[in-house]
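As a warm-up, study this chain.
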Amino acid sequence: MVKNGRSLYVLASLSLALGTAQAQFKDPQLQAAADMGRPLELEKLAQSRLAAKADDAEAVVALGRAAMDLGDEKKIEQAVGRLEQCVGRQPPVALCHYMLGTLSGVQAMNASVFKMPGLAGKSRDNLKKAVELDPQLYEARESLLQYYLMAPGIVGGGADKAQALVADTDKFNPQYGRMLRARQAVQDKQWAVVERELGAVQVGQDKDLRTNLRRAWQQMGLAHLNAKQPEQARAVYERVRRDFPEHAAGSYGLARALTDLNKADEALTLLEQARALDGAASLPIDYRVGLAWIAKGDKPQAKAALQRFVADKNAHPRNVEEARKRLAELG
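Now compare it with the structure written out below.
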């Protein structure tokens, strides 16, 4: 049983951290829908595959990813049921354990004080099993590290376990070991260490590593934005823009930082540039355009951008809700 409110807070925070997890799919259609941030499309594709083959493990994982991205508790519960069937099959599938561990962490956020520790333990055990089954599954290692760093010792967290996981990762892939050390340093806000470790990663021809490295830099920038440190975020996203010029993340993140720095004109230019780059479809660009126009005091332009965003059938429901609130404030 969780003993105090602090433990409840940590476990809830953990579930949010796990809720940012990724899953790599072999099927290009599933991966494209996931990369573009289109959970409804991903859900539809997964359901179609499951209708043709009920034990399609990758489709079950995709259904879980879609439910997580939508934040729909009922759909998450249904996905968990399918994933529990998946992990019971032989041979076991690492990706099913990974997604079950992830969704169990998400469920912990909304659970009662009595159920939360059990769900946290379920999350931990399935993430550990995923790493055991596929030592190269970086996403599972990253999520398990988050668990160890954020969960209280009473449910199996601890810095010593986190350190052991990082050391073990070094044996399989030193580059991913560096990324996990960076993740540890983010937790402690040791920004110089984060920059040193990420800066030392050698991606070579590994496309997945390159993608994960970009996401790690993005997470660092987002951490600065959330901490109300736009100048630091600006420096990080300038690097993302330089090192990953083909992707929209750098321009988009830099625009967010510049908006916070009262440089809305520059932000608007960057957001328009981001539209033409890879990954733009997964980003709420028109929402951020609306916020930049609000910062400039131009209500008509802000309303036009926010209305475009709300009308986009592929826009994420959570962002749409925020956009509607902004429109209501504009009158």
